[in-house]
Amino acid sequence: MTEANKDDIVIQEDSEDLVPDAVLHVETETFFVNRKRLAQLSPYFRALFFGGGRESSKRHIEIKGVNLDHFRSLMDYTQNLRLHLDRTNVLGVLETANFLQVEKARLLCCKFLERELHLSNCLGMMAYAWHLGCLELYAAAREVVLTHLPALASEDDFMHLSKETIADLLASDDLFVPREDLAFEVTLRWATYEPSREDDFLELAGLVRPESLSLPYITDLLTKMKSSDPRAKLIYKLNNHIPTSWTMGRSMPRTRSREMLFVLGGSHEQDQQSLYQFNPRSGRWQSLPPLQRKCLTQYSVAAVGNNVVVTGGYFRDVLWYSVDWVWIYECSNERWVDGPALQKSRHSHCSVTLEFQVFVLGGSMDEGLVPDVERLVLGADCWDTVSPMIRAVERAAAIAMGSCIYVACGLDENGEVYSGIQRFKTVVNQWDVVSYSPFPR
């Protein structure tokens, strides 16, 4: 492939040579084709050649309504099953393949366009694919839109989406929004674009999860909004006509809003511990408000619900000592708050979540290792104690599976690696050792 066409896609398969028995005329060019071959690849040509119509008995047939260059590309494909696509011809070839019902060529065009999807074209491509009936391309474009809807809401293409399309996106549990505030903001932005959308706003607002709207956002929206703001009329109407869905109890959180990776850390000599959020769908990192704490290390971090919980640690004032501190980062409100203190100060421990509970396991106090396990139900004002581990360890690994918690290895009271895999059965509040690691570490 030359430098000029290095972006082309070439698809090649084995094919057999068939004797031409018909001539197709497109504009000023003629194509010698085999009827049976084309009929195998296209219902359009099957009906044309063998449907009993006037063209069935003709040797010379004129094809109208197609572009010559795009038709030539498809005829080359029917001869040798090689389809050359690039950014300049793919849409035309797709439309011609769609018109002539050459399904395999149509799918190749859609696959090419899927690879070309990005923020600047996903909205237009979603509408285009729906118009042509290319469901795979439509689904791929919709996936990009669902992942980046708040960023796309300022695009002109977004403002011209139909109410039905906006409703479909807002109703999806696959919609990714770091905060539900953004879903409401998207709705306001679309509804204020045209005065005629005022009645549509109430229907769309009913698709927002109201219990997930943050208090700071609502406060900021109401206090800074002026009477001349076009959003004010919509908010007033919403206040007088609360959507039925908002009065029917709690709705389910959006599934993808919970699919996040959080990373917290940094040098203990710094004034703060940096917090980052990674979205595995979009592949993007986002900086979040840091934990304002200096000289803290060996703490444990766990994610529960829509929160990040930091427990314990080793703190230096003049001397190093264990702490019972707990901080909770509320993702919906983008802020850190103090949580209930641990019953026992500890560091080098592990923590794990099970449903809406946080478990803190083992670690070291200033006096030495402890096997104690504490549990906090999110929203409660204190920790409670459950059965201690069989073997006290620090720097272990922990994971929750089903209704059980597993603690793997760790260092014992002598500083040696313990090879046991300890299991905590939360239902019966019991520990046992289920196995021993072949490679303790």
Automatic annotation (TrEMBL):
Database matches in SUPFAM superfamilies: Kelch motif, POZ domain
Keyword Acyltransferase recorded: no
Annotated SMART domains: BACK, BTB, Kelch
Name of one Pfam family that matches: Kelch_1
InterPro entries: BACK (IPR011705), BTB/POZ_dom (IPR000210), Kelch-typ_b-propeller (IPR015915), Kelch_1 (IPR006652), SKP1/BTB/POZ_sf (IPR011333)
Keywords: Kelch repeat, Repeat
Domain of life: Eukaryota
Residues covered by the BTB domain: 20-87
Protein name in the entry: Kelch-like protein 23
Organism in which the protein naturally occurs: Clarias magur (Asian catfish)
